[in-house]
Amino acid sequence: MKKLIQLTLLNFLQGSREKIFWLVFFFYLFILAVTFFMGILSVGETAAVLRSAGLLGIEIIGLLLIAFSLTFGFHQEKDNHMPELMSVYFSRPVYIGSKLLSYLFICLFYLILAGLGLSAILIFNKAFAFYNLIGIFSIFLKLSIITGFALVFSVLFGSALMAFISTLSIYIASEVSKEALRIVSVSGNKILKSFFDILYYILPNMDKLDLKTAAVYGKLPPFAYLTGITSYTIIYILFLWLLAALIFLKKEL
User: Fold this and answer.
1) What angle (nearest 5°) sits at the alpha carbon of residue 184, between those of residues 180 and 187?
2) H or E element in which residue 43 lies
3) 3-state DSSP call for residue 102?
């Protein structure tokens, strides 16, 4: 456990100092500026537009940050033979676990900074409400699962670009799987419906984790629901860590 904490802290400090982290964050500041002007232009719906655009911007930029920095950072370390050096002092599951935890902390760090920026704009426009924090929390759950997938693909593929594209593909597929299942159900094709049923339950159920719209309009689910989706996320992340660790154990460094 001590080695895991040490390596996680090292990876977190390294990841949060990377240029890509701050480049993406400054790009988010630009998104915040656009959100601010959207609020000015949307007469009568300023609060809803600011919250919706702000939360969506936080999620999309966070997705790009995690997917890009983890996949390309992992392969950069691999090219520099860092996994070989680390394997002398740490086991492979610990190394993979530290990668996962460190990028979860980086994701949380980004969301705190982005959330503070959005809150400042909402307060300035008298549109802030504490249930906006639930929206940010749901984004953290979604991005945590995507972090796990990014790690799995980074270990699985020898190309950082392939890992990056696969991570984005999983995110998109997870976002549209519920609607795709609904469309297929209407078509009446039982074979296709069975296939999409299986696909829906294998992919992370982002529709159940996504609380952005509920946060925008203040229609929050009960505490039991929040506990349920949090538990679901933790279990899914543990499964992805185990999968990444097993793949990494089979790989030659």
Assistant:
1) 150
2) none
3) helix
